[in-house]
Input
Amino acid sequence: MSKKCRTCGKAELATRSETYLYTESGLPNVVLVDVKVRRCPSCGHHELVLPRIVELHRTIALAVIHKPARLSGPEVRFLRKFLGWSGTDFARHVGVDPSTVSNWETDKEPIGPSSDRALRLMVAHGSPVDEYPLDELTRIENRRTPPMEVRVAPKDRGWQTVASAA
Output
């Protein structure tokens, strides 16, 4: 299926597989190998064909969290956006001021080791931690209670929480 260029309208876009620097991710070093790109031979306009973009971004996020060094600003921003959080929401999740998140994302200051680990764990968890209301998370550090009893029973080939009591 051929398609006219949306920019110049003069030529049909030619599709070919190529190696593509995926700067649209917000990361400077993501290279997509053997992806389809439609290019206009007349004006140079191009369109990247990305099937399963959510899976692509999940794959990039998993690669980023396995980096052995502290996360860079663009990596923090990519992971925060991957989780679907605003800067303010992310700041509340990790217990910092929104300006601190901004400073991390613009490389004005490095992300702290605890926040770095927390972000990596949130991404490794697989999705935003929606099951914990933000107001509940912000109260955790201010409450001290005895250890809670958790009752767990076998179910099928796994385990199931039966009851929990404070």
User: Anything to note?
Assistant: Residues 117 and 139 are 20 Å apart (CA to CA). The helical segments are 53-65, 73-83, 87-94, 98-105, 113-125, 134-140. Strands lie at 14-21, 31-39, 46-49, 149-155, 158-165.
